[in-house]
Design brief:
Layout lengths: L1 H12 L4 E3 L6 E3 L5 H11 L8 E4 L2 H7 L5 H9 L4 E5 L16 E5 L3 H10 L3 E5 L16 H6 L2 E2 L14 E5 L5 E5 L1
Parallel strand pairs: 1-7, 3-5, 4-8
Antiparallel strand pairs: 1-2, 2-6, 3-6, 4-5, 8-9
Helix pairs in contact: 1-5
């Protein structure tokens, strides 16, 4: 696992795009602060960049670095969640501008899965995490369901966890608005 993480980080430091296992489905990832790398992910997915993508971080402390003002309820949600939870925050910062939604918000998930958590920790920056599919096609739950087109389009495919056959679910998504209002986007 350590060698896979080292290789994936090396590719992302150079502006490359990786295919990697996350705490939910397999993801296409890159340095979330690199505008050119983010642009490549949109191109690989054939997706308009007006549709924002989420990012993974390895600890709640990192959320503060990427969000101007984290609503207090976010800390409770992060701490209490028992399954992967993506929270959409207003006032994103320190990220590639083309990664953000038109309203300046960003979805961030604190991962607790061993590989993606260590990857985020070693990379020391947020990592884009978007499902490994062409936009509009079904999200592959396991590595064997990822199209050859996606596998060929990225710069590095992580070896770790390719054999898994379980069907993980995408994360729940909650949007936190100003004043603490909570809107459930996906349960």
């Amino acid at each position: 696992m350590k060698e896979e993480i080292r290789k994936a980080c090396e590719v992302m430091y150079k502006g490359g795009v990786i295919l990697y296992p996350t705490d939910t489905v397999w993801g296409i990832g890159c340095d979330a602060t690199n505008e050119e790398a983010v642009k490549r992910v949109y191109e690989i997915k054939r997706r308009a960049d007006s549709k924002a993508m989420l990012v993974l971080v390895d600890s709640p402390v990192k959320v503060d670095f990427y969000v101007r003002e984290v609503p207090p309820v976010a800390w409770d949600l992060i701490e209490m969640t028992t399954k992967p939870l993506t929270i959409i925050y207003d006032g994103a910062r320190n990220l590639a501008p083309n990664l953000l939604a038109e309203d300046g918000s960003v979805g961030i998930r604190v991962t607790n899965e061993a590989f993606s958590k260590e990857l985020c920790f070693r990379f020391r920056k947020a990592i884009v995490s978007t499902s490994a599919n062409i936009s509009g096609q079904p999200s592959p739950a396991v590595f064997s369901e990822i199209s050859e087109e996606i596998k060929q389009a990225v710069d590095y495919v992580v070896d770790y966890r390719r054999e898994e056959t379980g069907h993980p679910k995408p994360s729940s998504i909650i949007k936190l608005g100003r004043g603490g209002e909570v809107k459930i986007i996906r349960e």
